[in-house]
Amino acid sequence: xxxxxxxxLIRPKLxxxxxxxxxxxxxTLARAQLIKEKDDIDHYLEVNFKGLSKEExxxxxxxxxxxxxVDMLREGYHKSFTELFxxxxxxxxxREVAKVRSVFWLQKPLEEQPDKLDHFYHYxxxxxxxxxxxxxxxxxxxxxxLACYFNxxxxxxxxxHFYERCFKIAQLIKIDGGKKEAEAHAHxxxxxxxxxxxxEAAEHYEAFHQLTxxxxxxxxxxxxxNLLACESLLRTYRLLSDKMLKNKKYKKAIKILIKASEIARxxxxxxxxxxxxxxxxxxxxxxxxxxxxxxxxxxxxxxxTDLDDDLSLGRAYEAKAKVLQSQGEMTExxxxxxxxxxxxxxNFQNLDIVRASTMLGDIYNEKGYYSKASEYFEQAFDTxxxxxxxxxxxxxxxxxxxxxxxxxxxxxxxxxxxxxxTSLDNxxxxxxxxxxxxxxxxxxxxxxxxxxxx
Length: 454
Known about the structure:
Blueprint: H1 13-18, H2 38-48, H3 54-61, H4 64-74, H5 78-101, H6 114-132, H7 136-149, H8 156-170, H9 179-194, H10 198-212, H11 225-246, H12 250-266, H13 270-286, H14 290-306, H15 310-327, H16 330-346, H17 350-367, H18 370-387, H19 390-418, H20 421-433, H21 441-452
Helix pairs in contact: 4-6, 6-7, 7-8, 8-9, 9-10, 9-11, 10-11, 11-12, 11-13, 12-13, 13-14, 13-15, 14-15, 15-16, 16-17, 17-18, 17-19, 18-19, 19-20
C-alpha cells in the first residue's frame, strides 16, 4: 500500500569485492580469474594482487552467496542470517520440485542472482537494526520493501513470507492509528485469496474494512483505503457466493451478497453498488425468487442508466430477460433481449450478440415460431465465426439445425396432411434433392402472422 523511496543498496565489504568477479560485472576479467580450483586462484592472486588480506582473498575465492552470509555474521546480524539461510534452503527445494514438473522451468539458483542477494542483505539488516531499537515502523517498511521487490510470479512465495512478517510487526505499531495494521490485513487477504482460501481472506478483508472506516487514509495512487477494502470484500464475497450457489446453498449465498450490497452502499461508489445488485439478483434467480430478483435487477438497471454505462446496462437487460423467461413472461423477455442486441451491436460486443441471439432463438423455438428462431440462430452462428471459438460454433450449429428441422417439419407435415398432387410433387422433389423444401403457403402465412405478435 505504501510506496517507499528508492534507497541506494549498501553492500558489505566482502560482497563489494566479490561482485567484481561476477559474470554481470562491467569490468572485463581474464579467463584465469574465473577458474574455480583453489591453487590456481591463489597463484593468480599472489602474482597479480600482492598485499591482499585474507578476507579479500576469501572474497574472490568464495561464492557471492557465501560472502553475503559471512558479512551478515561478521556484522552481528544473526537473525538476518538465519532468515536468509532458511529462505535459500527453501528456494533450492522449490527450484528442484519445479524442475521435475516442467522441463522448461528456467529459474536460476539464488547464488546466480546477486541483485536479489543484495536486496536481502540491505533490507534484512536494516530491519534487524530497527527492531533492536524497537522502531517497528522502520522494520515494517523494510520488510514491505522486500515483499514489493519479490512480487513476481516465480517469487511470490518470498513475497508472501514477508507479508506474513509485516503482519506480525504491524501489530506492534501504535503510533499511526492502525494504518499499517490495516495495510497488513489487506496483504494477508490477498495472500489467502490467491491461494483459494476465501474464508480466511474474507476475515482479513473484514478487519481491513473495519480499521479503515471513517478514515481518510489513501494508498500511493491516491485511492481511499476504505474504498479498496470495500472492493476487496465484494470480490471475496462474490467468489464465496459462487461456490455456495454451485453447491445449491442459496440462502447462504443470498445472505452474504446482501452483506456485500450494504458494504457497497457504504463505499459510496455507484458502479460498485450496481455490481453488488447484479450478483444478488442472479442469486435470487438461482433460488427461484423471481419477483425479488427482478426488483434487485431493476436497481442495477437504474444505476447503469444513471452512469451511462452501456455494457452494464446490456448485462442488466440480459439478466432481467432470464428472470422474465423463468416467469413465463416471454414478450417482456424478448423486449429486453432485443435491447441487449442493440447495445451489443453499438459497442461491438460479439459474445453478447451471440448470447442474446441464442436466447431469442430458444424462446421462439420453444413457442413454435421456427422461422424467427432460425433467423436469430443464424445471426448467432454468423457472429461466432468472428470469435474463433470452435466449441461455441459447434453449439450454435446444433441450435440452428434443430430450429431449421422444426421449420421444415411443419411444412412436410402439412403437405402430407393435404395429400394433393402439388403437395406430393413437393415432397418427391425434396426427397430427391434433400435441400430446403419449398415453404407451404399456409404455413408461411401462419408464421408471418404469429411472428408479428412477438
